[in-house]
Amino acid sequence: MKKIERRALFCLLLAGVLAAGLVLFCIRWALYGGRWASFAANRHLYNGNGELSVGRVLDRDGDVLSWVDQGGQRTYYANATVRKATLHAVGDARGSIGTGALVAFAHKLSGYNLLTGAYSPLGQGNDLYLTLDARYNYLAYEALNGRKGAVGVYNYKTGEVLCMVSAPAFDPLNPPDNLEEDPQYEGAYINRFLSGTFPPGSVYKTVVLQAALERLPGLSQRTWTCTGSTTVGDGAVTCPRAHGEQDIAAALANSCNGVFALLANELGGAVLTSYTEQAGLTGRYSVSGLNTAAGSFPLTGITDNELGWAGIGQHNDLINPCALMVYMGAIGNGGKAAVPKLVLKTENALGLSAGSARTVDTPRLIDPATAETLAALLANNVTQSYGEGRFPNMDLCAKSGTAEVGGGQAPHAWFAGFLRGEDTPYAFVVLVENGGGGADVAGTVASRVLDALVNGY
Question: What is the distance between the alpha carbons of residues 223 and 206, in angstroms, rounded to a whole number?
């Protein structure tokens, strides 16, 4: 009798495990079935060349960026520059661009549903609308003018990314035969905006100033005298020129290395680490399921001189362009910003649409009162240093950066900031690798895209 009871108990345990496994499978099937079906080995969805043979990718205005022709081959927009400018958002037919919609959102393009799977008697695949505007991407790519870099613009209230460009890029319709060997295409498979990290240079001074505004009483009444070289620890931190006597607003507008190196040491590495983490610059964002690269700021356990250089965005600092853009959006939005997203909606063969994921805000990246003060100082940068005339009809707040990279190379050029106003809730970032001066080079790229966004030019 006891043997029968033990066997019965064992059978019940097996049945419980089976039931739990079945429940787990059903949950995973409901959540990830579309991704399983869009695996590249599925010949119902992929042609003999390994190209996704269903679905169309469109921009927010309905311009078709990629579709499948009558022969079952993947094809692209007619204009070659648009194809290059949207490469890292749309993807290449071979699936080498991991952030492209043809790879990242294949499950949405497949038309998969729980009832019929990837098969649909009504048509082949879905229409996937991206939040991007192909025109802004075109203008950004043109403004980069063959240089490596990244450009991003997004609505910090809704999270919609309007422009996402990474260069170098190649024509997905006519990819070069020697892409892997040609130096001009080095890193072309990488989406620098989402997946790259770079020395930030002076754009990082924005975080140092945030910390100083909250931790150093009487900051606005203090003055410093810059002679072009400031002793910090056991060495010097230099500026391109002597700035003379200046208060904190002038020090930011002048981007004075000496002042911000001193502030970094006064605050200390532990405080700066805390503020850098709070600003979201060492974490990752999920952009419609695509994870950004995490920045790196080793600010503790280093010498005072090294901390001084780290405080001006040098030493071993690395920042992700998308994370910097979100931080700028949080300043403009009073402390928080929407997490970026790339998918606007999908439409099936019946014309029924499914909207994008709901808008999700970041944690608080900056205190609202500090954000207001910092925004005013960033606006002063534009008035005093960058030139309001370059940004017509814009209430612009910005910070430039010129990041030294060594090896005899020209520095990286940065320009990041945001627009204020109910009708212009946009944050942006521009990186031009080895571009030289941040305000002149990267600022010019930003002005081209923002002018089209705000003034329609």
Answer: 18
Question: Which phi and psi (to 5°) does residue 156 adopt?
Answer: -75, 0
Q: Cα–Cα distances in Å, from 176 out to 22, 84, 172, 182, 244?
A: 48, 12, 9, 9, 53
Q: Which residue has the higher pLDDT, 31 or 218?
A: 218
pTM comes to 0.92
DSSP 3-state of 413: strand
Span 94-105, average pLDDT? 92
Distance CA 26, CA 6 (A): 30
**Which regions of 88-187 does DSSP assign to beta strands (E)?**
127-130, 149-155, 161-167
Cα separation of 228 and 440, whole Å?
A: 21
| Contact yes or no for 138/156 (Cβ under 8 A) | no
Residue 58 pairs in a beta bridge with 64, 129
Amino acid at 5: E
Identify which of 2-11, 351-360, 365-374 has the greatest average pLDDT: 365-374
| pLDDT for the residue 351 | 78
| Burial class of residue 118 in the structure, from the number of CB atoms within 10 Å of its CB (0-12 exposed, 13-18 middle, 19+ buried) | buried
Q: How far apart are CA 258 and CA 264, in angstroms?
A: 10
**Other Cβ atoms within 10 Å of 268 Cβ, number:** 16
Burial class (CB in 10 A: 0-12, 13-18, 19+), 28: exposed
Pairing label, strands 127-130, 56-58: parallel
What one-letter code names the amino acid at 380?
N
- One-letter amino acid at 301 equals G
Asked if 129 contacts 62 with a C-beta cutoff of 8 angstroms, the reply is: yes
Among 203, 236, 216, smallest CA distance to 381 is for 203
Given the DSSP bridges, would you call strands 161-167 and 224-226 parallel, antiparallel or unpaired? unpaired
**Helix %, strand %, coil % of the chain (to 5):** 40, 20, 40
**Pairing relationship of beta strands 343-347 and 426-432 according to DSSP bridges:** unpaired
Q: Do the Cβ atoms of 60 and 129 come closer than 8 Å?
A: yes
Express each pLDDT in 6-44 by its tens digit.
Answer: 767 777 777 777 777 776 665 664 555 555 455 554 545
Mutual orientation of helices 368-381 and 205-215 as an angle, nearest 10°?
130
Rounded to 5 degrees, what are φ and ψ at 77?
Answer: -50, 150
Give 452's Cβ-side CA count (13 Å radius).
17
What is the per-residue pLDDT for 282?
A: 98
